[in-house]
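TA notes, week 10

Several of you asked for a full example with nothing omitted. So below is the full record: structure tokens for the whole chain, then the designed sequence directly under it. When grading your own attempts, check the secondary structure regions first.
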């Protein structure tokens, strides 16, 4: 079985290494009207595993936020934990937002460690959004060459977990999203200026 590097994205990320271990069965419940935890984690990690030169997690301005977004949801990213980050992003109207605060793609043991210390918040225009705690869930995602996590290229089997906020489609206009998260040894502080409904 392929070894999977331990990825800690506290909104998102640090890195380490670890092998996948036996996983519990996927949760049948969905945290949105459209996607279950295995599905949305696969979409987020595929999106986050783009080449470093155009990666939305390492992006410090927001210029790559629109790159390779999935159909069902609009994804936001944290950072690699190197101080506060501010981004500006244009978002289509009628798209729900998926905002991970602290998340991991590794194995069951890594998820157990992460979730013991994971905490954070997401604010949209100053209003606190409810967070969903996702326990260890197996899923598969695609990694591209040059991704910032040094992951092997191609399909990666992982066990994922984290704190996520699902945000209803924002009204057209400008909005501020603040993401603050912590986990052992990691701190994330990201602010987005979203322009919704722009061409």
């Amino acid at each position: 079985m392929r070894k999977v590097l331990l990825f800690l994205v506290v909104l998102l990320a640090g890195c380490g290494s670890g092998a996948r271990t036996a996983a519990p069965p996927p949760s049948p419940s969905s945290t949105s009207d459209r996607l279950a935890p295995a599905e949305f984690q696969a979409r987020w990690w595929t999106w986050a595993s783009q080449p470093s030169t155009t990666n939305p997690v390492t992006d410090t301005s927001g210029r790559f936020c629109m790159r390779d977004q999935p159909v069902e949801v609009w994804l936001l990213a944290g950072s690699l934990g190197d101080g506060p980050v501010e981004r500006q992003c244009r978002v289509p109207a009628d798209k729900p937002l998926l905002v991970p605060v602290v998340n991991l793609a590794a194995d069951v043991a890594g998820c157990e460690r992460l979730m013991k210390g994971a905490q954070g918040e997401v604010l949209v225009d100053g209003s606190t959004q409810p967070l969903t705690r996702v326990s260890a869930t197996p899923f598969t995602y695609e990694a591209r060459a040059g991704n910032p996590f040094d992951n092997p290229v191609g399909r990666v089997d992982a066990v994922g977990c984290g704190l996520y906020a699902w945000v209803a489609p924002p009204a057209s206009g400008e909005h501020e999203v603040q993401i603050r998260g912590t986990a052992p040894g990691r701190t994330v502080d990201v602010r987005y200026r979203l322009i919704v409904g722009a061409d």
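The helical segments are 37-48, 108-117. Use that as a sanity check on your answer.
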